[in-house]
Design a protein that fits this description.
The complex is a heterotrimer.
Chain A: E1 7-18, E2 21-32, E3 36-40, H1 47-54, E4 62-67, E5 70-71, H2 77-82, E6 85-87, H3 100-107, H4 116-120, H5 124-144, H6 159-172, E7 177-181, H7 189-204, E8 208-212, H8 216-222, E9 225-230, E10 233-238, H9 240-244, H10 247-253
Parallel strand pairs in A: 3-8, 3-9, 6-7, 7-8
Antiparallel strand pairs in A: 1-2, 1-4, 4-5, 9-10
Chain B: H1 2-32, H2 39-56, H3 61-84, H4 92-114, E1 130-132, E2 135-137, H5 139-161, H6 163-173, H7 175-180, H8 185-207, H9 217-232, H10 237-258, H11 265-277
Antiparallel strand pairs in B: 1-2
Helix pairs in contact in B: 1-5, 1-8, 1-9, 1-10, 2-3, 2-4, 2-8, 2-9, 3-8, 5-6, 5-8, 6-8, 9-10, 9-11, 10-11
Chain C: H1 3-19, H2 23-48, H3 56-72, E1 74-78, E2 82-86, H4 91-115, H5 118-138, H6 140-143, E3 149-150, E4 156-159, E5 163-166, H7 170-192, H8 195-205, H9 207-212, H10 217-243, E6 245-246, H11 253-266, H12 273-288, H13 294-311, H14 316-328, H15 333-345
Antiparallel strand pairs in C: 1-2, 3-6, 4-5
The chains are: A alpha/beta, B mainly alpha, C mainly alpha.
Chain lengths: 261, 290, 346
């Protein structure tokens, strides 16, 4: 994970304006293969907007996003997921009315291979595909540690475990890069530690991670590199130690009540 | 040219009542986000109320009109209180189904009470139409135009100049903030539904004497009201007013020069075409009230 | 032993004409069954995929008219002077054309639903059905308008051992409709239990989330619409060749409402829901007709719909399932959820 590792995601001078409101004025940074990059900033700095632009839920007013060699701007969310870039959501991160197991099965959608006719005619290939998917779903659940909750309704899980399920959902797609929107929000310290270990395991398996977080100790520990956003602009970028002592960053957070460095 | 002028005048008159219909629905649909299937039934109720008051109770025509509007408001408020308020927060399918149920009950109640034959409403106006240049227009229709415009004006004043209107506009823009500012949201919803229904009843009361009164007259009215709302943009009164006139105009021209059988279809075509091209409505620079 | 209930129902369905001889009740049974097929198709779109399509009767009517016109033949002049002549084809071909024509309209609606969402979509679908009705009413050259298309011939199938058989007899027609009904049920069951079905349910519950895991939302919306419409078209064809006369009233909104009531009361998003709802609202008129005028009946239906929404919003089938489950195993909540979702996973 040296500085010369290949760039996988590049956000090139992205700007987002809603009429007179500037959500992002100029966003320009890269993420390299195998990195864990943390995107932080005070509330309203434009972090979730950035996520929405990268994953195709929002069209930027200017600039573009590239993943590996593909241009992402203009693609629909499901196409971007098909390229290997999968995101989680901060709110409603799971399918509430389905079981944990069914949630992961849904996430495995792209891994399935059966066609409409195979389904309708109940050809033998279909049940074999379904069994393979079911096995894979159990494997993903074991990875995140939710195996014992498999048949509980996702909506009845404690909030922290729902966030975990959201990550499992994203993992099921077999991404090469994960965009996590506040993964540990609502988690207690034990769950947070569990999640941090999970992220390390995921990175070890070759997945690049970009995450947005407010939990400073967590993001400072887990990230290789931090990008700081304020008022839609990057105000600092670098390793966690440097960021923690950066006067501009400290000023941006002063009075927010979130300074927990 | 004369024919065109005649169509224009007809469209103007029809448009003023269509505008009332559309304004009523844009308020309800815009502020409450309810797919109000009973709107057309309030329109029919307005007409039937005038008929009942005049023919069976011998009430003066003008008084009957006024009472019909009040009845419309009352019934609207009742519907909101009994059916919609308990469902606060339910998803759109649920409220939609309840509205459909209410529509079925209302229409069949009217059918049961008055039968399916159409009724005519007598008016105190002379039968002989007035001639202005090449155009013929009946006194009744002039009256309809005047009252229609007056009601549009009154509604405009209510929404933009009164305290209630301000609360309604606030609720439309941001319900939660309005609630935090002390607006009684539940009361606003009831008032909105009542006002919207009253306007529909007014439209029905005005058009009842012009056409005939039948139990199914509300169905087309509902759909046309939706067409007008879509044309004008959700919650946009000016848009609804213009939309009402545009729809009337398109109907008149379409019936006159293309085919009268498809007259009522103009509204639907408008809906489909507009939503295909501009899903937010023609005049929706921003969806706003006023 | 999952086969047992299925076998039981198949037997039950197959043996009905053996004890039900009254021609009137058979008639009600046939029309109810046809409407159940239409309701099942609506359930796929409304209940499983979450699309508030209230123009469903358009697919039914298009299927009916397509089938009738294919079978009767027509001779029309299009604007521009083109003459289109069609010689009568066998009714079975009409069935196929009906499915195709309805499916095509479903494709259009599916594509449209992606552009227009929520309440607007509801209005568009209603308008679509109304426009279709007005076309059927006014394009007299093709559809005979309010004079109706009549003398529609029944299906003729070649049955081994019997030869060419014309489906005039009510009992035979019942088996035909029941057969199509069972096929429809199985198709829907297979679809919703599959990967494709999961995608539809996902997009109904949370579209952005579905998109983020790679589900092409438009594609599955359109697929659901096409399959749903095609099935409704099939039901329309069955209807046309049974009553043998159809007019533009077939497109009336009230028929969509009937289907919606059946689905909602029975339980949207369940397999048995539309069947249960269909049976109830198919036979309720029979029960009520002796002492209630049609207008009164409709008032009862309207009131019933409101009551169901307030009291049993999920519908009858899920309520019964929940009740029977809690009765069978009064154990803590988690175990019950375990049981119910395990059953769903099957």
């Amino acid at each position: 994970m040296t500085a010369s590792a290949e760039v996988v995601l590049s956000i090139e001078h992205v700007a987002v304006r809603f009429g007179g409101l500037v959500a992002i004025s100029d966003l320009d940074f890269v993420v390299r293969a195998g990195e864990i990059v943390g995107l932080i900033g005070p509330n309203g700095a434009g972090k979730t907007t950035a996520f929405n632009v990268i994953t195709g839920f929002l069209k930027p007013t200017a600039g573009q996003v590239r993943y590996r060699s593909s241009l992402l701007t203009g693609l629909k969310p499901h196409q971007i997921a098909g390229l290997g870039l999968v995101r989680t959501f901060q709110r409603t991160s799971v399918f509430q009315n389905n079981t944990v197991f069914q949630n992961v099965l849904i996430g495995l959608h792209r891994r399935g291979r059966s066609s409409l006719w195979q389904t309708l005619l109940a050809l033998p290939g279909e049940s074999r595909c379904e069994r393979e998917l079911a096995d894979e779903a159990h494997r993903v659940l074991q990875l995140v540690g939710l195996e014992q909750r498999a048949f509980q309704l996702a909506g009845t899980l404690p909030y922290g475990e729902q966030r975990l399920l959201g990550i499992a959902l994203a993992l099921a797609v077999k991404p090469s890069m994960l965009l996590l929107d506040e993964p540990v929000s609502g988690m207690n310290p034990a769950e947070t530690a569990r999640c941090m270990q999970l992220l390390e395991n995921i990175r070890a398996s070759g997945v690049t991670i970009l995450l947005v977080e407010h939990d400073m100790p967590m993001v400072m520990t887990v990230s290789d590199r931090i990008v700081v956003l304020n008022y839609g602009r990057i105000i600092a970028e670098g390793p966690p130690a440097a960021i923690q002592n950066n006067p501009e960053v400290i000023r941006a957070y002063l009075g927010e009540g979130k300074k927990r460095a | 040219m004369d024919e065109l002028l005649q169509h224009l005048v007809n469209a103007l008159i029809l448009g003023s009542t269509y505008a009332l219909l559309g304004i009523g629905l844009t308020l309800i649909f815009g502020i409450m986000r309810v797919v109000n299937f009973t709107h057309g039934e309030l329109y029919a109720l307005g007409a039937y109320a005038v008929f009942l008051l005049e023919a069976s109770l011998g009430v003066n025509f003008f008084l009957a009109l006024a009472i019909a509007v009040i009845v419309g408001c009352a019934v609207g408020a009742a519907i909101e209180l009994v059916l919609l308020r308990p469902l606060q927060g339910a998803d759109i399918d649920t409220t939609m189904l309840v509205m459909i149920g209410a529509w079925i009950v209302m229409q069949n109640a009217e059918l049961l009470y008055w039968g399916g034959a159409s009724k005519a409403i007598m008016t105190p106006f002379p039968e002989q139409p007035l001639q202005i240049g090449p155009i013929f227009v009946s006194w009744l229709r002039i009256f309809v135009l005047v009252v229609g415009l007056a009601l549009i004006g009154a509604t405009y004043l209510l929404i933009n100049r009164s305290k209630l209107g301000k609360a309604m506009r606030a609720t439309f823009q941001d319900r939660d903030t309005a609630a935090l500012m002390g607006v009684n949201i539940k009361g606003i919803y009831t008032a909105t539904f009542a006002i919207g229904s009253g306007l529909a009843a007014a439209a029905g009361a005005l058009l009842g004497p012009v056409f005939l009164v039948t139990p199914t007259m509300g169905d087309l009215a509902s759909l046309k009201a939706f067409a007008i709302v879509i044309l004008g943009g959700l919650g946009n009164i000016t848009g609804a007013t213009l939309g009402g006139f545009i729809l009337a105009f398109v109907e008149e021209i379409g019936a006159g020069y293309v085919s009268s059988g498809y007259r009522d279809g103009m509204g639907f075509l408008i809906i489909i075409v507009v939503l295909l091209l501009r899903p937010t409505g023609l005049f929706a620079r921003a969806e706003r009230i006023g | 032993m999952k086969r047992a209930p299925a076998l039981f129902w198949l037997l039950a369905i197959a043996t009905v004409p053996l004890w039900l001889r009254d021609q009137y009740y058979l008639h009600v049974l046939i029309t109810t069954a046809i409407f159940i097929i239409a309701a099942m198709s609506l359930n796929l779109l409304l209940g499983y995929t979450g699309q508030l399509s209230l123009g469903h009767v358009a697919f039914f009517g298009i299927g009916a008219y397509a089938s009738a016109l294919t079978t009767l033949g027509f001779d029309i002049e299009l604007p521009g002077g083109f003459r289109v002549e069609h010689a009568p084809w066998p009714a079975v071909a009409g069935f196929g054309i009906a499915v195709a024509a309805a499916g095509l309209s479903g494709y259009a609606i599916g594509k449209l639903s992606f552009k227009v969402r929520g309440a607007y979509f509801v209005i568009v679908t209603i308008s679509f059905a109304e426009v279709t009705r007005l076309v059927a009413l006014n394009w007299v050259e093709l559809t005979q308008g309010p004079l109706a298309l009549n003398n529609i011939p029944p299906y003729t199938l070649w049955i081994p051992g019997v030869g060419d058989y014309e489906f005039w007899d009510k009992r035979a027609y019942y088996y035909l409709v029941a057969g199509v009904g069972v096929v429809t049920y199985v198709v829907i069951k297979r679809l919703v239990g599959s990967r494709i079905g999961r995608a539809m349910i996902a997009l109904k519950e949370n579209e952005p989330l579905a998109g983020s895991v790679g589900i092409d939302v438009t594609r599955y919306l359109v697929l659901a619409a096409v399959v749903s419409a095609a099935m409704a078209g099939a039901a329309g064809s069955l209807y046309a060749h049974y009553v043998k006369i159809i007019d533009p009233d077939i497109f009336l909104f009230i028929y969509t409402v009937t289907m919606v009531i059946m689905v909602i009361t029975g339980g949207k998003g369940t397999l048995a829901g539309p069947v249960v709802g269909g049976v109830i609202f198919g036979f309720l008129p029979v029960v009520l007709r002796s002492f209630a005028a049609p207008a009164v009946q409709w008032i009862i239906y309207g009131a019933l719909m409101i009551v169901i929404v307030f009291v049993l919003p999920e519908g009858i089938v899920p309520a019964v399932e929940r009740w029977s489950r809690s009765w069978r195993s009064p154990r803590p909540a988690e175990a019950t959820i375990l049981a119910s979702s395990k059953a769903r996973d099957e």
